[in-house]
Amino acid sequence: MVPETNSSHINPSSISDGNNLPSNLLEFLTELAKAMTAAGIAVMTIEAILKNICRAYGVKAQEVIDFPTFVLIKISDDNSRALAVTGQKPGLLPLDQVSRLYELIYQAENAEITPEDGINRINDIINVKRQHRYVRHILGYALYSTGLGMLLLPTTNELLFCGLLGAIVGLIVGYAEDKPRLTLILPVLTAFLVSMIFFFGVKQGIVAGSLTILVPSLSYFIPGVVLATGMYELAANNVISGASRLVQGVVILLLLLFGVIIGLQVVGLSPGEYMVAHLASPLGWWAPYLGILVFTLGMYLLMSIRNRDMLGVLIVLFTTFIGLQVGNYLLGGLFGAFLGSTIMTMGGTYLERSRLKTPYYVSIIPAFWILVPGSLGFISLATLAGQNYSASITNLIMVVLTFVAISMGLLIGAVIADPLKIE
């Protein structure tokens, strides 16, 4: 999902011919690989970064193999060799931690930090202790959900309901933040509670019966980024890592679907009493643009985006959305997904190399929710709850094609952006 890093500043002739590896370099590389995997960075980018760091420290990286749950690194100079194998646990890091991680990567790629200091920095970044931030989670998720809703929903009443569901999810996420056991069942539990409230509102006539309303409130758990990264890795011939991410994403979608169906059954709402919709008419031409601002503010609170990165995030969000809209207008949704993804990749790469220095991954993660690939997949599966099988099959085919379009946009955007050098 991230373009290859630029290694033009590294001189191959500087690789050491000595007999000793730098102290703790292997441990530093493995810890860094684990941290980047936890951030969700694509495996080919992790491998490229580790090789660049090895060159910077005068060591040849003979083998660097990274998977979502496993990393193997073999480094050597002329006579010395070292091999490390370590387990990894993929997750989702707050974006301020990702920004700090990228700053460390930049230093390591220029050998400006010792491996020992690098290990300490990684521990400081990953193991930071955060107090319960209920207000930030509740308000942030309510804004996040409302902002996405403005891209999908047609009425003020539905937006208010969407914000309410988002606030409930924010409370649940905040409560489960330091409870690993609860985190394992969080997608099912959240989908069940939110869908039960939604279907009860439909039954009482409080809100119109469109499953689209569930998308913004559950989108935190919808694995759009995981699925798109998996498709990108498959397209780049990283079969094992790509396939494992796709399986992970599909399982999460099925867990969410299970929670929604249980919520439907508890409320006792028949499938004919609610409507399944892909897209809803926006409030007006201004609504999506205002929605992006509201969504970004919610992401700022929920995902802890640093102040200095906000401008870059907004630039990538708006350019991605405009590319998506232009593509939709010209040739339809698939071309819109492709064009938006291409512009997102190029914009994120440009900003990382510009004076803003907004880390690529930090700027594109919010933009993935604008592309909404995972939401399409969730709605497609949700049509099964209404026993609309023909529509489900058609929708799922479109979802697969959408992922192909996004992954191709990522690849082509990376190829175009790679020669860019912003001084």
TrEMBL record:
Its Gene Ontology molecular function terms? transmembrane transporter activity
Give the organism, scientific name.
Methanobacterium formicicum
Limits of the Threonine/serine exporter-like N-terminal domain: 28-266
What is the protein's name according to its record? Threonine/serine exporter-like N-terminal domain-containing protein
- Which residues span the membrane? 32-50, 134-153, 159-176, 183-201, 213-234, 246-266, 286-303, 333-351, 360-384, 396-417
- A Pfam family (short name) is ThrE
- Which of UniProt's keywords are assigned here? Membrane, Transmembrane, Transmembrane helix
- Tagged with keyword Ribonucleoprotein: no
The keyword Metal-binding is assigned to this record: no
Q: Which family does it belong to?
A: Belongs to the ThrE exporter (TC 2.A.79) family.
Show the InterPro entries listed in the entry.
Answer: ThrE-like_N, ThrE/Ser_Exporter
